[in-house]
Amino acid sequence: MKDSFRQGGSHLKTIFRIGILVLVGLHLAGPFLPTTLQPVMFIPALLVLVTGFPLMSGGFRKAATLFLALGAAMLAFSRQPASAWIAACTSMTNIIAIVAVMQTFSMPIRLGDYDSAIHSWLSRRFKSNRALFFFTTMATHLLTSLLNLGSIPVTVSLLEDTIRRRVPRYERFFAAAMTRGYVLATLWSPGAVILYLILQATGLSWARLFVPGFLLGLAGMAMSYLMETQKRGVLHETPENGHMLDHADRSESDAVHPCTQAKKGEGSRASHIVLVAAAFVIVLFVFETLYIGSSSGRIILAGTLISFGWTLLLSRRPGLSGVLKSYWTDGLMKAAEIGPFFVAMGFFSGALEKSRVMDIVGPALQSASISLGAGAVVFIGLVIVLCSLAGLHPFITIVLFGKILAHADLPIPPLTVALSLTVGAATSYMISPFAGMIMTVSKLLGAKATDVAIRWNWRFCILFFTTGMLFSFLWGAWFG
Question: pTM above the 0.85 mark?
Fold first, then answer.
């Protein structure tokens, strides 16, 4: 009985993986075909929904069920044809494809043994804990631009040993650096799901948000570093053994561990990740300049080209079959939570567009926006943060409030609206104990999710939200 149950679960996972890969293939082919592939995408999208539904956690499953019920009710009530149901079901499959493509970057990272190279290089180059904090934040930031949520376990495997030996309160040190480095990358990274949802809601291109998002990300990392080097920061906390953090035992912090002796080419291999991230951005800019495909199609195509090109350059190294197998068994399953969730959310979002709901609430939203004026986006940003504290995922609130703001006649540029939404979403990621990134960090570090999200991040979140909103209005006024 148990064997048959396990076998059935294995078959479900296999079908789920196939559905994901078919969606990726269709989105890659889409920009080069004269006809739409939406009807064809319906079958793999349905497979992902049906086979992935049992693989979801309870919270995501309940949200997906609610989205499906509301979407079906709206489409049925407005008597939409079958084509509208199909279009709604496939409207967010591009996000699923983006997540699957971004996971392919784990293959060249493992194949090139970048983890051990960076670990050894780190131990030799960053002697002070101030430098270590900044490097941990920046390393997480860069890895997130390639791996999304996969950057967290990679960063832990790279740096945990060094940080644990050098930092007495290493959990807070590590959690603060990783959560902020991760979240600030979502302000500009081409593969960031939350950023793409905002682009979809506001109708802007990724190129319009890249520069301000990147600058805001750099400013956020600088603010985090300065905050933690102040007297109340993590770099000045007194641990139980009575030593200050920056005066940890020099015999350990300054010494090079036997397993991290200098190896030829470590520095250059560490710089490869920076070059790959830059190449990703450049290729994406070229695709947007040439108007190749849609915004999501360009991200999928650029990510595939860079990732597999990088893997091809390393293909003569031993272990290629192992990393390919790992992507099949583990990498594709990273979409097990959000794959069916985004099919359901897309179904709801598409139904909302096809139904007359927005036409009915439009006048009320316009009236509210006139009374609030420019403050409407600040209010929505705060609501996104408060909803995340109550357990409502930012994905949901961005879809709902993004469409509300898109239909409202606000007296501010769309660029300000988009940047304000990214600031609200980024803040909610950092401070919500229910966010997937926070739960992953807490699990890997053995810390409470409430400590990681609220206790160790609330001061930074207030500073970042305030600064980010001000930046959004100024940038929109100058360049919107």
Answer: no
